[in-house]
Amino acid sequence: METAEIQRRFLKFFESNGHTVVPSAPLPAFEDPNLLFVPAGMVPFVPYFLGQATPDWNRATSVQKCIRTPDIDEVGKTSRHGTFFQMNGNFSFGDYFKEQAIRFAWDLTTGSLESGGLGLDGDKIWATVYLDDDEAIDIWHKQIGLPLDRIVRRGQADNMWSMGIPGPCGPCSELYYDRGPDYGPEGGPEVDEDRYLEFWNLVFMQNIRGGGPAKEGYEITGDLPKKNIDTGMGMERMAALLQGVDNMYETDQVRPIIDKASELTGKRYGVSTSHTASESHPDDIRFRVIGDHVRSSLMLIGDGVVPSNEGRGYVLRRLMRRAIRAVRLLGYDKPAMPELLPVAMERMSAAYPELRTDFERISSYAYGEEEAFLKTLKHGTTILDTAVTETKSEGGKTLSGSKAFELHDTYGFPIDLTLEMAEEQGLSVDQEGFRQLMAEQRQRAKADAAARKTGHADLSAYWQLLQEQGPTDWKAYETLDTESRVIGLLKDGQPIPLAKAGDIVEVVLDRTPFYAESGGQHADAGKLVGPSLFAEVLDVQRPVKKLVVHKVRVLEGELVIDDKVEASVDPEWRLGARQAHSGTHVVHAALREVLGPTALQSGSFNRPGYLRLDFSWRAKLSDETKSEIEEVSNRAVRDDLPVAVQYMTLPEAKDFGAVALFGETYDETVRVVEIGGPWSRELCGGTHVSRSAQIGPLVLTGESSVGSGQRRVEAATGMEAYKYLARERDLVTQIAEEIGAQRGDVLERVRAILQRTKDAERELANLQAKAVSGRAAEFAAAAKQVGAVKVAAVQAPEGTKGGDVRGLAMQIRGHLPEDQPGVAAVVATAGGKASIVVAANKAAQAQHVSAQALVKAALSGKGGGNDEVAQGGGVPADQAAQLLAAVTGAITA
Ligand code: ATP
Ligand code: MG
């Protein structure tokens, strides 16, 4: 049965049992600062489970796209772990519970194919339950008829479900399918999880858990307002069972990628492997990694993730690099993505049609990333080779941990690659040292993350406030001042009773005019003022949806719950913010006008006076293009276009041509900001000017690369743009004064000065050369007799250039008597290194005195040339005299 058919049957079964079909949320978990990606079907429903929001239905079903980064190392080594997979779920919000949930799962799984079921053999199914969940055992045994020896009790780690953080939790019951003795030993799920394949987890969600360890040993702190059901059936695992294949990578959505990789590399998949994944040949694991990671990359880029060095983008980068590397290890070293990604798209676009329509954008990121990585590999390989040679020449057998770390950190060179390539050249790697450096780096990253504004690991205090006090009455679009009441006071995410002068605390107000940072717009600045209170607002965030939290520094007086305060946004600041945000839209529209519609924004940030915008584009922008973008932007300002805000549904907004940006989630009603009608239409919650002329001047101040296929433009807006231009003007004025030119003549004068400097330098060099060669006769006259040979050993004046050293040696030789063996040896020092040139005359050569042999003698075998002239160098400058001594010594010998 094809995966698409499993999906169809699943949704149909639950729909006909009263469930509303809810579409998958995007893979990036935008709503939850604790998560990078959605790892389970229930995540989009969390507010309903917590009772923070009420859904329009009390039964829902979905097929949710999931990413589980912790499973990355399992891929291909077990039969059942993908980084990307689809979780089919049915959910009850205070409606049915345990008994009905078990019944549904059983009926769909074992129901006959004709009746719309999945047709699995019920005699091969095992169930696990939480330790003391006798009720679940009774349901399985008495109502479903599952024999007691196929029901297993398991502890908190396996059968108490939570998201690993404070929040909802509850006992669960998992369904396993016994695939038979070919897949491993008997004895049930506790003995072998590959033979007994978990395919469905039923969570009886009824409790709230506290902090503590993620999986086991945390405390249950209370009950949820209602009992809920959350289930997750792994669609890939079900497909593997129904398609009679050994693992999830061989199912219809992934296997074709493996087959393509096999075609490219000429290696066959699966020939040396039995049914059990754990005993696989390394090549087969590589094939599975390719299948899994290529598909995951497709899905991630499809949902707006772009390769980068942090967060979500880094996960994508890592997946792509692992896949590319696996392809190379299988023996194919050309770009593989253009071959593999279309196969993945063909398989996945039946369920996700946007993958096809958006394929140009998706593939351009993927191909660009591969190109960049292949370059990295090439570059890194050179660095590695040099390091290996150095290590060997010093007699070492181990490549240092710091080199391995540098390769990893600077060149993105994976450690396993370093290990392997070093080994090929007979070196081991100081892995301990490498790990130490990695650990230090991670520590730094952690400190970094902790220093960031949002991302409180524990959001429960905010949730509680929201539950008790309701959403913030948010007036940012209407006013800059409100009379407000303090309804929450927190420090480090925990409630506190009061704040005194000097404290930095978080304040929640019943009503606020402050814009919380979002959509790339920086938070408002301003103040809270009470009868004796004065507090400065430092930051404004929305840690949970609909709750605005102000970070303030109390400067005077005290803050206590229930205080009345006047909340005021700094009007200067807000004007600057509106200019910058509208300016961002203008620059975005200008980019698309000049470069075309594929120059789509992938990220932005703006605060008063400054904006930056990242967009998909492969090449560096030329100076002309930059000027053009700037001109189009300023023309739009001059045209004084009207700025309009409208509310509509998301599909309406898309029909309307509004640009929806990745990285944002949108409610059912969205806000569309237009500048000049269709010229710029974007979904946006930011604050804007009312006509484009209010943006004021707009100056591009920078253009740079931010990762492959991504460029960034930066601009100054409003007064800052004016100040920027004024500074440039003043600079020109100063330069003009300094060189005594009229402003209009500055460039010409600077060019003339540069030319004169160059000429003077050349003249000076000539004079120096002449001065040196003028002394050739003097040096020759001072030559000493060494045995039968006249030797002029000369240390050239400091600063003599390389070419002049050779010239000097030749000239000195010319001044030596022709009828007698003669040798000129000249050393010179420059840049901390010494070099030597030796020239021998005919008579010397006839006596077998060779210039080359003398240089080699001085430089222990190095250097080049012939019997007549030879040179070499590279030794430390303080050995210059020794070089001459060595030459003289060699002549005596
Ligand atoms: P396992 O112990 O096998 O890793 P799990 O306990 O982590 O599974 P759950 O969190 O209960 O799995 O997820 C519900 C269902 O989602 C599982 O029963 C399984 O069918 C599926 N599933 C979980 N993780 C993956 C994965 N990495 N790849 C494919 N399917 C998965
Ligand atoms: Mg797991």
| Helicity range | 25-40%
- Backbone CA Rg: 36 Å
**How many strands?**
35
Mean of pLDDT: 90
General shape = globular
**Which small-molecule ligands are present, each listed once?**
adenosine-5'-triphosphate, magnesium ion
Derived from helix and strand composition plus strand pairing, the structural class reads alpha+beta
Straight-line N-to-C gap: 89 Å
Tally of helical runs: 26
Low-confidence stretches: 448-456
Biggest pleated sheet: 9 strands, mixed
Strand content: 15-25%
What structural keywords apply?
893 residues; alpha+beta; 9-stranded mixed sheet; 6-stranded antiparallel barrel; 35 strands; 25% strand; globular; binds adenosine-5'-triphosphate
Describe the 3D structure.
With 893 residues, the chain is of the alpha+beta class. The protein has 26 helices and 35 strands. Strands 1, 2, 3, 4, 5, 6, 7, 8 and 9 form a 9-stranded mixed sheet that branches. Strand 1 (20-21), helix 2 (46-49) and strand 2 (59-67) form a beta-alpha-beta unit. The chain starts with a helix and ends with a helix. Mean pLDDT is 90; it is low at 448-456. Residues 68, 71, 80-82, 85, 87, 198-201, 232-234, 236-237, 248 line the site of adenosine-5'-triphosphate. Adenosine-5'-triphosphate binds at residues 68, 71, 80-82, 85, 87, 198-201, 232-234, 236-237, 248.
